[in-house]
Specification:
alpha+beta; Arc Repressor Mutant, subunit A; Beta-Lactamase; 2 domains; two-stranded antiparallel sheet; 9 helices; 43% helix; elongated
């Protein structure tokens, strides 16, 4: 026996699924056309979803995209067992290979939330641990994820100077423009970095993990003592997080990056 559908719920879920498949916001008319819904009903659904934060309305462009609440749901799923099961062995192997402490984190609002923490032997203690949240703009993990968000989503998270905080005396981005410029460099290199902005004397490198749709699902990072790491050591860590992120992406049926170009395959 087929379970009867709830029309409003079915339309809402199809709308969110369609938005999730797009790399950038789209007009309401296109959503209505692709879903086969009346425009009036589509606007009603969008209005409700905007009110609850699941959809973001860009007034000037007249476009709609996923809102912060939708990303919260995505993060909640990834924080649970599936991502931990998929990523734990990969993180352990990376830490064993490099000898530095490694992490896997997801975006949770403006913070990154650590879901896997693997400490290397004889390395310094860290503030990060499973369940700990740290402002994403300060961390290598957070920057790796933020660099892959659509501009509208980034503006929703970091659109004002009041959205930025600091943990140490190290200078990090404190305004939207500074963050955008930093993320341009992250996208160009395919690696995010931070130096002393989370914990003094420690630095980190990170690479993004993508899900089956190519969206940033998490980030892999390594943390090391800054003064002990020469350029060769830093690049070895960068290559290690890139390989680990690609492997977790593959296991999530995502799209790994090309090791030669840093571009998505």
């Amino acid at each position: 026996m087929t379970t009867p559908k709830v029309p409003a719920a079915d339309a809402t879920l199809r709308l969110l699924t369609l938005l999730a498949s797009r790399r950038s916001p789209v007009p309401a008319a296109r959503l209505a056309e692709e879903l086969g819904l009346p425009r009036s009903r589509t606007y009603d659904l969008l209005t409700t979803l905007v009110e609850h934060g699941y959809v973001l309305h860009l007034d000037q462009e007249r476009l709609y995209g996923l809102g912060p609440a939708a990303h919260e749901l995505s993060g909640a799923y990834l924080r649970q067992e599936p991502l931990a099961r998929i990523g734990r062995r990969v993180i352990e192997a990376m830490v064993d290979e490099v000898g530095e402490s490694g992490h896997l984190a997801v975006l949770h609002g403006r913070d990154v939330l650590y879901v896997i923490e693997e400490r290397a032997r004889n390395r310094p203690s860290l503030v990060s641990d499973v369940g700990v949240r740290i402002p994403s703009h300060l961390t290598a993990s957070g920057r790796a994820i933020l660099a892959e968000l659509p501009p509208a989503q980034l503006r929703a998270l970091y659109g004002h100077a009041a959205d930025f905080t600091a943990r140490t005396e190290a200078t990090g981005p404190s305004r939207p423009k500074e963050l955008r410029e930093l993320l341009v460099r992250v996208r160009a290199e395919g690696i995010a970095r931070e130096q002393g902005e989370v914990t003094e004397e420690l630095a980190s490198v990170a690479a993004v993990v993508r899900d089956h749709a190519g969206w940033p699902a998490a980030a892999v990072a390594l943390t090391f003592v800054e003064r002990d790491a020469d350029e060769e050591r830093r690049e070895r860590c960068a290559e290690a997080v890139r390989r680990a992120a690609d492997e977790i992406t593959r296991r999530l049926r995502g799209r790994p990056t090309d090791e030669r170009t840093g571009e998505r395959r």
